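for the writeup, i need someone to sanity check this before i put it in the appendix. the sequnce is what the collaborator sent (i think, or maybe the updated version? ugh). structure was predicted straight from it, no edits. if anything looks off just tell me and ill rerun, i have time this weekend
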Amino acid sequence: MSFSYDVKEEMAKHFNSARHCQIAELAAIISLCGHLRREEDAKDALVVTFDRESLFRKCFTLLKKTYNIDEVSVREGGKNAKYEIVITDNDTVWDIFKGLKLVSRDLGFLGFGKTVDPTLIKSSCCRRAYLRGVFLCVGSMSDPSKGYHLEMVCENKEVADQIAQILTTFDIEAKTICRKKYFVVYIKEGSAIVEFLGICEAHVSLMEFENLRILKEMSNSINRKVNCETANIAKTVRAANRQVEDILLIQKVYGFSKLADSLRQMAEVRLEYPDATLQELGELLDPPVGKSGVNHRLRKLSEIAADLRED
């Protein structure tokens, strides 16, 4: 199973003890997964559709806890609708709509997929529960060992904007983009995703995410160091080869006897030790000199070789 699947399974098993938090989470689930359907008796039924059993069980438990609903029809649908909760009693349906603030002041039904009523998410704990319900319904995230990306896909721009605004109350910066006909709220920072998992109280997933993130960052750090060292070695080798070429040219055209003693000694030592570093070359000289002194002498030799090439 994917990491995203495991996160949702953990969230589906978490229940707040406070009724107002349960209602906030249920508001997200009903709004995003619910719809009205005309039944054979010409009555409208509330149908909540899920693609996984754990979310179906969570919604049923929340309905039971908040509205004492024990009698619902459960239907197993086709390929894209595995589980359905169907409530046909009109009074029960309207009790749910009223409790979730899905009706207007004149008792008109506001519809599904709308922004949540602000009174349901006044408290921080209720906002946490609402975000958890949203992620369970329309969220997903990548495997943290491969990359950091969490998103929630909405059909309504106002809902996406509200989710992003709720995230800012927890100091999480989320961005919203339009993808085809959907509006996507996404987070790409690893630390922000960790914060989101903590907000939704998915603590096991949070620890797993952190472990994978640490391993990934350690691997990246080691790779950067290896690449840097490899680049430095390659640079040193190229410089040494160029210095040896210059010295051989001087030896062939000019001769070492015409060089100052310090440059002659430098040229002889470099030819004898072509793979040595500047520090090692300096220690081989008599008397020894530092890296800057070695670099200065080699630069002088290069200048002489450049003049000989021009001539």
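Strands lie at 34-38, 44-50, 73-75, 83-87, 139-141, 150-154, 175-179, 182-187. DSSP finds eleven helices and eight strands in the chain.
thx in advance!!
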